[in-house]
């Protein structure tokens, strides 16, 4: 489901307006959690920031705009151009933008606004936040009932049993079965919600079900998923170029895991050392560190409990205590 959100709904949330906040906040939250696809017209955004010009500093307006971009897509607009307009209050390029046309352009199902009368002649139906929540809840319940009738869900215990019968257990896990995610939240198969502080061990930095990422992966998967590093691909060239520019480093190297990245770093350091003095190729890591589960990164890990049972370990590693070189 797609919606175009009017500025008054966004203002309800930004200004914490009592009495109307609950429904407006839930509309924005549904967009944030990717339960629905939310858009805002560029004209809506410029109107919003024009209203807020006296209440917030340029830095605060900039931060708010970035936050808004993480929740709502701004239809047909260049971000830098919009940011410049907001910071300089020069909105002439956005004056002719009509929300009804924007809603039609993005294929929105509804315009969500507190001023429904302003959209009486619109091609897209306009509804209040309260009415939209009712529509959403009704469709969600129907979809949930359809799902329950089509498929008998396994219980957690059944999934634990099936997994334990087939998957090699090499580490401990928490006794929950996660099913889906939205933004910073994860949901288990019983629909219990969790705040995800782990983020896949510092991997899911954009949150779960982040639509631009989902779209990018889906579009690439529809073309080609993997061809090995024996060939060139445009996405790899583009990604490497962007990483080099952002990091200020000379080259980028892609690996499948942190352990492989650390293996690559160890090999690069050793290769460099051997050009000058092979005796200076010792790798120094810290006690209580963790660097991976391959043999080299396991040895680099400064925790003897992880070494037991995997001896003899590769040589050339030393350990130091933190803050005591």
Q: What is the strand arrangement across the widest sheet? A: 3-2-1-4-5
| Proportion of strand residues | 5-15%
Number of helices: 14
**Main beta-sheet strand count, sense and barrel state:** 5 strands, parallel
Walk me through the structure.
Helix content is 47%, strand content 11%. It contains 14 helices and 10 strands. The chain has helices at 7-14, 21-32, 42-51, 58-71, 79-88, 99-106, 129-150, 156-166, 199-202, 211-223, 234-247, 258-274, 295-300, 304-307; strands spanning 2-5, 37-41, 73-75, 110-112, 126-127, 178-182, 185-188, 193-195, 283-286, 317-320. The strands form 3 sheets. Strands 3-2-1-4-5 form a 5-stranded parallel beta sheet, with helices on both faces. Strands 6-7-8 form a 3-stranded antiparallel beta sheet, with no helix packed on it. The chain has a two-stranded parallel sheet with strand order 9-10. Strand 6 and strand 7 form a beta hairpin. The longest helix is centred in the middle third of the chain and has 22 residues, at 129-150. The model has no long low-confidence stretch (mean pLDDT 81).
Question: What's the structural blueprint in terms of helices and strands?
Answer:
Blueprint: E1 2-5, H1 7-14, H2 21-32, E2 37-41, H3 42-51, H4 58-71, E3 73-75, H5 79-88, H6 99-106, E4 110-112, E5 126-127, H7 129-150, H8 156-166, E6 178-182, E7 185-188, E8 193-195, H9 199-202, H10 211-223, H11 234-247, H12 258-274, E9 283-286, H13 295-300, H14 304-307, E10 317-320
Parallel strand pairs: 1-2, 1-4, 2-3, 4-5, 9-10
Antiparallel strand pairs: 6-7, 7-8
Helix pairs in contact: 1-2, 1-3, 2-7
């Amino acid at each position: 489901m797609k919606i175009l959100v009017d500025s008054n709904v966004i203002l309800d949330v930004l200004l914490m307006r009592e009495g109307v906040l609950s429904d407006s906040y839930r509309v924005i939250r549904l967009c944030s959690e990717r339960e629905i696809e939310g858009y805002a017209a560029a004209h809506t955004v410029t109107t919003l920031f024009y209203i807020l010009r006296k209440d917030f500093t340029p830095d605060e307006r900039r931060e708010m705009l970035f936050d808004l971009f993480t929740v709502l897509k701004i239809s047909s607009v260049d971000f830098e151009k919009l940011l410049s307009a907001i910071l300089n209050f020069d909105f002439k390029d956005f004056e002719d933008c009509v929300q009804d046309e924007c809603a039609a352009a993005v294929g929105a199902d509804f315009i969500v606004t507190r001023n429904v009368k302003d959209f009486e002649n619109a091609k897209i139906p306009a509804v209040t936040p309260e009415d939209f929540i009712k529509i959403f809840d009704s469709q969600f319940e129907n979809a949930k009932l359809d799902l329950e009738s089509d498929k008998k869900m396994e219980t957690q215990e059944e999934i634990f049993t099936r997994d334990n019968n087939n998957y090699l257990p090499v580490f401990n896990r928490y006794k929950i079965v996660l099913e889906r995610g939205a933004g910073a939240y994860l949901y288990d198969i019983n629909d219990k919600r969790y705040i995800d502080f782990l983020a896949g061990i510092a991997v899911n930095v954009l949150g779960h079900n982040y639509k631009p990422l989902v779209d990018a992966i889906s579009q690439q998967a529809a073309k080609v998923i993997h061809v090995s590093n024996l060939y060139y691909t445009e996405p790899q060239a583009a990604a490497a170029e962007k990483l080099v520019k952002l990091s200020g480093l000379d080259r980028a190297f892609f690996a499948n895991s942190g352990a492989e990245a650390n293996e690559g770093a160890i090999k690069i350091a050793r290769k460099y050392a051997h050009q000058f003095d092979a005796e200076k190729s010792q790798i120094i890591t810290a006690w209580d560190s963790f660097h991976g589960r391959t043999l080299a990164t396991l040895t680099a890990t400064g925790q003897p409990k992880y070494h037991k049972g995997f001896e003899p370990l590769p040589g050339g590693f030393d350990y130091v205590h933190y803050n005591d070189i």
